[in-house]
Design brief:
Elements (H helix, E strand, L loop, with lengths): L27 H14 L6 E5 L14 E4 L5 H12 L4 E7 H5 L3 H10 L4 E6 L2 E2 L5 E2 L26 H6 L4 E8 L3 H19 L4 E7 L3 H4 L3 H15 L3 E5 L5
Parallel strand pairs: 1-2, 1-3, 3-4, 4-8, 7-8
Antiparallel strand pairs: 5-6, 7-9
């Protein structure tokens, strides 16, 4: 009888030679597990290249058993665009970024890759703060959220959070833009469908595709992993609703 994998560690997940890669309760790992599952299920292992940014997302390049690289802070879309153009349409380029990497220092590369309709896929894991460097306020920090640089909670002087998935959906070069979460089994499967669609848009040569995934950050939020999931459901999702914001088969 042929054995088929249906649960547990994906085949394309690498066992890292360190005891802890992501902080306990961090959902970067759960999001990356989805990518490993899909690359295997879609049969694109030999064509896929992951380009990681700087931050919590950096770890992703060391945990996938397919080609991966790490770029300067905020520049994964630039590097992915170049590699895609050099290697050709069959290459599946995935940028794996945090919200700070993709839409703070990386705003220009991300926006212009989307505007150009680069046939790459960006996965932005949004934990609402700068996770690696100490929990500072980020472009996606919600109003009232306490960070190390907004100790009384984000207020008007710090500006307002950016809804990245909705913003990118307005650009002509974008074929797909969606936002998912990992707070339940249902949301996990929903997010997996979004990621598969994002990858397929690139494979079909339609245009730029984007998926934002809301993620916990228990150490910087000062919450337990379970309370962090509740916080996403009660605070983040009302600010950043889940769903597909653009899904087209042709760039008009």
């Amino acid at each position: 009888m042929k054995k088929e994998w249906f649960a547990g560690t994906p085949r394309l997940w690498v066992r890292a030679p360190v005891p802890i890669v992501f902080c306990p309760g961090c959902q970067h790992a759960s999001a990356l597990k989805i990518l490993c599952e899909l690359v295997d299920e879609m049969g694109i292992e030999g064509e896929t290249i992951l380009m990681a940014g700087v931050g919590c997302s950096t770890m992703s390049a060391m945990l996938v058993d397919f080609d991966a690289g790490i770029t300067a802070h905020g520049r994964p879309c630039d590097a992915a665009s170049a590699v895609k153009r050099i290697l050709g349409e069959k290459t599946v380029m995935v940028t794996w970024q945090g919200d700070g990497d993709a839409f703070a220092i990386g705003t220009e590369p991300t926006l212009h890759a989307a505007a150009r309709g680069e046939k790459i896929t960006t996965i932005m894991v949004n934990n609402g703060n700068y996770g690696t460097t100490g929990g500072q306020l980020a472009p996606t920090t919600i109003m009232g959220q306490v960070t190390t640089t907004s100790p009384e909670g984000r207020a008007e002087p710090q500006g307002y959070p950016i809804a990245v998935a909705e913003l990118l959906a307005n650009l002509r070069g974008v074929a797909y833009s969606a936002r998912g979460a990992l707070t339940s089994a249902a949301n996990y499967q929903r997010t997996k469908r979004y990621m598969k669609t994002a990858l397929q848009k690139q494979i079909d040569g339609v245009g730029y595709s984007f998926l934002e995934i809301l993620s916990t950050c228990p150490p910087n939020w000062g919450l337990s992993p379970l309370d962090s999931i509740k916080w996403i459901e009660e605070k983040m999702i009302p600010e950043f609703p889940l769903g597909e914001f653009k899904n087209v088969d042709r760039i008009a």
